[in-house]
Design brief:
Rossmann fold; 14% strand; 465 residues; seven-stranded mixed β-sheet; seven-stranded parallel β-sheet; alpha/beta
């Protein structure tokens, strides 16, 4: 299937680690290399020490870190890379950046793009997010295919709402330089998203819910939409026999006197992800308070592990302390291999996000044979209830089991607690082999790349003159 003449350039305005979109494009790029293509990744970051794939050429859009030690990157912008929400290595976001910084941001991306184009002449750009960087890509004579990740549409909705609020204030006579700067930013964000949607050759959406939302927001680009599921690297995420004590001995707890994780538990619940508001780690903590106490009454000790980091770190740890949680442990950010091991020793995976666009972590859990709990919102039902069966809650609860996990309402700690108890007490009702096989058949990135993405790239690649 290889074609050494095809040069694929993946463009992301964020790092390739620390967020779901980075994990996804890393898995995708790995498959393109395996198929023999010339692969490039344009990525924003504040350091050069990030993990890189063999066979991929990286082009850095340089920013400056907030915390020491700060690597002095040549030509770095004097602020950190900018996100929609938060990132483990940056607190900058599109809503607190200034208009001056925004102009610098665009100029730097153009500088990197033009150098990359001149030196490497890519045949296809795969833009990540319908936002600024993808909008800029469409200025060049190279076809652009865009993946919608969900946070971009949230950004578009926020910019639209904020702009309306600002215009209402201005119509009532409120005037300030800050107000007009915010107005200019929101107008720019909207224009970029619309330009990216209009000028992309194809739009990849990651769930049926995201497809409906994109077509509603950008009806002029509805005919370009193609449903492409996000996949996982099955060489990393898979079922394996793991010694739980050995895994836990290599991790550290934030609450035990000696920093060691206990091994005298009966059941293990885990959360893995970045500490962004919409991930609702706060609900995991509140649910843990309920289910740990309820299960203890039945003589079952449940331990909860929270893996990840982000801007809400201190706030969440304070919440943990306020709740008096004795069996819930923060272990910090961990690498993918350790995530796999945790998923293999855990009894349930908790991810109660608000409107999660897709959620690779659910698929990673399933590939390891773990049972995920997610919310009835965003793209999660596409993963945990793919046949779109009518959900039947357990009597007296809002817990809806499916063949592949459990769905609960958003923003409901009590439902999350009940769902956790249900999984821990009824593990036999879930066919783990069926869950693993379903995940392999539908979310193996190699197969998604081979059968869907690469044929699309070949269909739209820049014509040779």
């Amino acid at each position: 299937m290889g074609n050494s003449k095809l040069k694929i350039s993946i463009v992301t305005a964020y790092p390739t680690q620390g967020a779901g979109s980075g994990t996804l494009i890393t898995a995708q790029a790995k498959t393109y290399v395996q198929f023999g293509y010339d692969v490039h990744i344009v990525t924003a970051n504040n350091n050069t020490g990030f993990k890189k794939l063999d066979g991929v050429t990286y082009h850095l859009v340089p920013f400056t870190a907030e915390k020491e030690p700060v690597e002095k990157l040549e030509g770095a912008l004097p602020f950190n890379f900018v996100m929609f929400t938060s990132h483990t290595n940056s607190s900058e976001n599109f809503w607190n950046i200034s208009l001056e910084q925004l102009h610098m941001y665009c100029k730097k991306f153009k500088e990197v793009f033009e150098k990359h184009i001149a030196e490497d002449a890519p045949d296809i750009f795969h833009g990540q997010h319908c936002w600024i960087s993808t909008s800029l890509l469409t200025d060049y004579d190279i076809p652009v295919i865009t993946t919608i990740h969900g946070t971009d549409m949230m950004g578009y909705e926020r910019a639209t709402k904020t702009l309306q609020e600002i215009n209402d204030k201005i119509s009532k006579g409120e005037v300030s330089s800050e107000l007009y700067e915010e107005k200019a930013k929101c107008e720019f964000y909207k224009a970029c998203a619309e330009k990216a949607a209009k000028n992309s050759k194809k739009i990849f959406v990651i769930s049926k819910q995201q497809e409906r939302k994109f077509k509603d927001l950008f009806p002029f680009a509805a005919d370009k939409v193609m449903l492409v599921r996000n996949g996982c690297d099955v060489s990393i995420f898979h079922e394996e026999k793991v010694d739980a004590k050995e895994v836990l001995s290599q991790l550290s707890s934030n609450i035990t006197p000696d920093g060691k994780l206990p091994t005298d538990y009966d059941k293990l619940a885990i959360f893995v992800g970045k500490f962004a508001q919409f991930k609702r780690v706060d609900l995991v903590l509140e649910a843990a308070k309920f289910y740990e106490e309820e299960m203890a009454k039945k003589g079952i000790k449940v331990m909860t592990i929270i893996a990840g980091a982000g801007a809400l770190d201190e706030e969440l740890r304070a919440h943990q302390k306020a709740l008096g949680l004795k069996n819930t442990h923060f272990i910090g950010r961990i690498e993918a291999d350790t995530v796999r091991k945790l998923q293999n020793i855990a009894d349930v995976f908790l991810a109660p996000s608000d409107d999660e666009p897709d959620g690779l972590v659910y698929k990673e859990a399933m590939l390891c044979g773990n049972i995920p709990i997610g919310t009835i919102g965003g793209g999660v039902p596409d993963t945990l209830n793919p046949e779109d069966n009518a959900l039947e809650p357990i009597l007296g609860t809002e817990v809806c089991p499916t063949k592949y996990g459990v769905l609960i309402p958003m923003n409901n700690a009590r439902a999350l607690a009940h769902a956790t108890e249900y999984v821990l007490e009824n593990a036999g009702k879930f066919d783990r082999s069926q869950i693993i096989n379903y995940a392999k058949e539908n979310y193996d990135q190699i197969m998604i790349s081979k059968n869907v993405i690469i044929p699309t790239f070949l269909a739209y690649k820049k014509s040779e003159k």
